[in-house]
């Protein structure tokens, strides 16, 4: 294995072993702040350069972004739906917020990005600003159950009743419960596309059961087998469900 691949694998394992990753949303070794400084120093002020810079950084220090391979599947899902109102659960360092918002071409189209970590929220805002996309992304700090009213208000300010597209990439234990919160409050409805990342590693068994089995009739669902972010030797999948 090449030295870069060894380093990337090691930084992945150390992140997985860190209690701060699950509690605070960061690997615990400062890589997220280092990534921000690297982006501000190296990347040109456009979305493509920012994403390329983050992807290159992650080749030596693993990051839990959706990454390049699964990112292409996300790109296609966005092209197919052409959303105006997008909800992202789990911003991390802003990679997916940049990726999604850079493809929104409807007037007033916006990503509302919910991130539990104050540090990650701050990083995301700066990364998005460097990409020139602050007018298309609103970062909200907190967790969904505490921010439903704010999320609802922001959605209605977009002249929309439901989200066109929801991107799930936060704590996998909350995929189903947070989707049910959105459903209970009428924030998802017919035509809403729900894109769920990391459905094999680490996986979200309750959400998988809900969309593929117990409530399968409520969705048109496709699962794409792919590879884990920045570690091509690890299998992963994404599940894309359209609400009927």
TrEMBL record:
Any GO BP annotation: methylation
A Pfam family it matches: Methyltransf_3
EC number: 2.1.1.6
GO molecular function: catechol O-methyltransferase activity
Protein name per the record: catechol O-methyltransferase
Organism expressing this protein natively: Marchantia paleacea
Superkingdom to which the source organism belongs: Eukaryota
InterPro entries for this protein: SAM-dependent_MTases_sf (IPR029063), SAM_O-MeTrfase (IPR002935)
Keyword Metal-binding: no
PANTHER family linked: CATECHOL O-METHYLTRANSFERASE 1-RELATED
Protein family according to the UniProt entry: Belongs to the class I-like SAM-binding methyltransferase superfamily. Cation-dependent O-methyltransferase family.
Keywords: Catecholamine metabolism, Methyltransferase, S-adenosyl-L-methionine, Transferase
Key word Transferase present: yes
Enzyme class: transferase
